[in-house]
Design goal:
This protein has 192 residues and is of the alpha+beta class. 23% of the residues lie in helices and 32% in strands. Strand 3 and strand 4 form a beta hairpin. It is globular and about 40 Å long. It starts with a helix and ends with a strand. InterPro entries: BlueCu_1 (IPR000923), BlueCu_1_BS (IPR028871), Cu-binding_ET (IPR050845), Cu_oxidase_CS (IPR033138), Cupredoxin (IPR008972).
C-alpha cells in the first residue's frame, strides 16, 4: 500500500487544483477587478474617454451622447466640447498616445472657471515646469475647477469632478507648453 501513496497524493493535488485551488492573491485580484467594474457601472458618473495625441489635440474614438466632435484625426475624431447638466458628476479619463519622452510630450486636462483667460493661464503654466505645468500663482490656481496630473506616452490619468451649477461655457485645456496654442482645448457647456 505504501507504493501507491505518492500516486494517490498526486491525484489528490490534481483534484484540488482542478476544483479551484488557486492562490488567495489571484482570487483577491479577480474580486478587485470585478468590484472596480461594478463601481464604474453603478456610480452614476458619466465618463469621457479622451486620448491625447502627438498632434496636440484631445480626441475620442467616436461620437457619443453629450460630446461634440470635429474632423477625423487618424483613427479618432477631434473632441470639441462636452455638454453637462448643472451639478452633474463627470469623470474625465485621458490616455496619452506617444512614443516621445515625457519631457517632450505629455498631456493633462485642466478645466477653468467661466471667466478665465485661458491664453494667459496657458502662458503661465508653460513656465511652471517644477509644478507639472500648473501655475503656482494663487490668482491663477483659483481659476482651476479640476485638473489631472500629466500623462506621458502609454499612461492614463483621470479626474472626477462636479460640473458647475452656473450654466455657461467653461474652457478646458492641456497646460503642457505649446499645447493650448496648438489647439489642445475644448469647451464644457453647462446647460439645463
Amino acid at each position: 500500500m505504501t507504493r501507491f501513496t505518492p500516486y494517490l497524493f498526486s491525484l489528490m493535488l490534481l483534484f484540488v487544483a482542478a476544483c479551484g485551488g488557486g492562490s488567495d492573491q489571484q482570487t483577491e485580484e479577480q474580486a478587485t477587478d470585478t468590484q472596480a467594474q461594478a463601481t464604474e457601472q453603478t456610480d452614476d458618473v458619466r465618463t469621457i474617454e479622451a486620448i491625447g495625441i502627438d498632434r496636440m489635440k484631445f480626441v475620442v474614438k467616436g461620437d457619443k451622447e453629450g460630446i461634440t466632435t470635429g474632423k477625423k484625426m487618424g483613427d479618432y475624431v477631434l473632441l470639441k466640447s462636452i455638454t453637462a447638466a448643472p451639478g452633474e458628476k463627470l469623470r474625465f479619463r485621458l490616455l496619452t498616445e506617444s512614443d516621445l519622452p515625457a519631457s517632450a510630450m505629455a498631456h493633462n486636462f485642466v478645466l477653468l472657471v467661466m471667466d478665465a483667460d485661458a491664453a494667459a493661464f496657458a502662458d503661465a503654466a508653460g513656465k511652471a515646469r517644477d509644478n507639472d505645468f500648473i501655475p503656482t500663482d494663487t490668482k491663477l490656481k483659483d481659476q482651476i475647477i479640476a485638473h489631472t496630473d500629466l500623462a506621458a506616452g502609454g499612461e492614463t490619468v483621470e479626474i472626477t469632478f462636479t460640473a458647475p451649477e452656473e450654466t455657461g461655457e467653461y474652457e478646458y485645456i492641456c497646460s503642457f507648453p505649446g499645447h493650448y496654442a496648438s489647439g489642445m482645448k475644448g469647451i464644457l457647456k453647462v446647460e439645463e
